[in-house]
């Protein structure tokens, strides 16, 4: 049954518009007995976040253009994460006022980092933006039993025939090389964290994005780069508050306590940490 449901989900995503997918998700939510009522006219409703607030970033031409270019290149897993990308653009803007390089651990095809590099006109800064990933899914050596089980179940439900270590991803190294060929500051580092961290040759980091969907590599990256973070530097944790990633939240909170600081939990599901 799980296999059939997975196939239906894949077929729906390929054939239906985002509006129809949203409608089907509403029906599925209601069928599970959960509330689907939003007691206001939503000005934003995507990526698990609905609100009725003003969002000037959606009308910012620079943001819209950078976002559209990354979508057009097909770099996304989910093309409807504009608020998360806005947070990254804010963090990058603040970090660019400091010295130091940018690092992203967990890149996939580079949707977020491509938007950020274009939005910031990053090459004009003369700095390096390190893009660190296996570019072929997960490394089983660094997964907890819970993370491994989640991936095995996911791949089984999609009936894709992929190795379970791939999860929702596809091999994408060549895609990333092509997508970032126009950025002089892009430094593509292929391999598993923590193995390849020494290849990130920087003495100062102003911006660190962590999005590897598994706890051990994420903590390894944070512990490796934290001493290199410039005062005022920004760490963006993509998975921090998302359901299913509680192991990462607990580990990140523990790190923050040991470092004498605290993580800001955002309604996007991200966590934000400032080096002080």
What does this structure look like?
- The protein has 276 residues and is an alpha/beta fold.
- It has a single domain (61-274), classed as Rossmann fold (3-Layer(aba) Sandwich), CATH 3.40.50.150.
- Helix content is 40%, strand content 15%.
- The chain has nine helices and nine strands.
- It has a seven-stranded mixed sheet with strand order 5-4-3-6-7-9-8, sandwiched between helices.
- Helix 1 (2-15) packs across helix 6 (145-158), helix 3 runs antiparallel to helix 5 and helix 8 (215-225) packs parallel to helix 9 (246-258).
- The radius of gyration is 19 Å and the shape is globular.
- The model has no long low-confidence stretch (mean pLDDT 92).
Offer a few descriptive terms.
276 residues, Rossmann fold, 7-stranded mixed sheet, 9 helices, 9 strands, globular
List the helices and strands and how they pair.
Elements: H1 2-15, H2 18-31, E1 44-46, E2 49-51, H3 61-72, H4 82-96, E3 101-105, H5 111-120, E4 129-133, H6 145-158, H7 173-179, E5 186-190, E6 205-210, H8 215-225, E7 229-237, H9 246-258, E8 264-265, E9 271-274
Parallel strand pairs: 3-4, 3-6, 4-5, 6-7
Antiparallel strand pairs: 1-2, 7-9, 8-9
Shape: globular
Strand order in the largest sheet: 5-4-3-6-7-9-8
**Total number of domains:** 1
Output the radius of gyration. Answer: 19 Å
H-E string:
HHEEHHEHEHHEEHEHEE
CATH class: Alpha Beta
- Major pleated sheet: 7 strands, mixed
What is the first-to-last residue Cα distance? Answer: 51 Å
Number of beta strands: 9
Overall residue-averaged pLDDT value:
92
């Amino acid at each position: 049954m799980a296999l059939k449901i997975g196939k239906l989900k894949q077929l729906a995503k390929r054939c239906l518009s985002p509006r129809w997918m949203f409608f089907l998700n509403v029906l599925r939510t209601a069928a599970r007995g959960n509330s689907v009522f939003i007691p206001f006219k939503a000005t934003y409703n995507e990526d698990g976040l609905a609100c009725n607030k003003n969002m000037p970033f959606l009308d910012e031409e620079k943001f819209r253009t950078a976002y559209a270019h990354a979508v057009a290149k097909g770099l996304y897993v989910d093309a409807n994460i504009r608020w998360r990308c806005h947070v990254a653009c804010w963090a990058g803007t603040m970090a660019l006022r400091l010295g130091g390089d940018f690092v992203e651990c967990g890149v996939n095809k580079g949707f977020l980092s491509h938007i950020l590099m274009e939005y910031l006109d990053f090459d004009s800064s003369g700095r390096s933006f390190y893009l660190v990933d296996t570019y072929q899914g997960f490394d089983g050596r660094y997964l907890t039993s819970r993370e491994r089980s989640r991936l095995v179940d996911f791949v089984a439900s999609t009936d894709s025939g992929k190795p379970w270590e791939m999860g929702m991803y596809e091999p994408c190294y060549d895609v990333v090389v092509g997508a970032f060929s126009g950025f002089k500051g892009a430094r593509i580092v292929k391999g598993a964290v923590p193995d390849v961290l020494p290849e990130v040759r920087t003495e100062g980091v102003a911006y660190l994005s962590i999005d590897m969907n598994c706890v051990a590599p994420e903590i390894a990256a944070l512990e490796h780069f934290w001493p290199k973070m410039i005062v005022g530097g920004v760490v963006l944790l993509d998975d921090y508050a998302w359901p299913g990633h509680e192991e990462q939240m607990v580990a990140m909170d523990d790190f923050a306590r040991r470092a004498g600081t605290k993580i800001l939990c955002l309604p996007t599901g991200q966590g934000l940490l400032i080096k002080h």
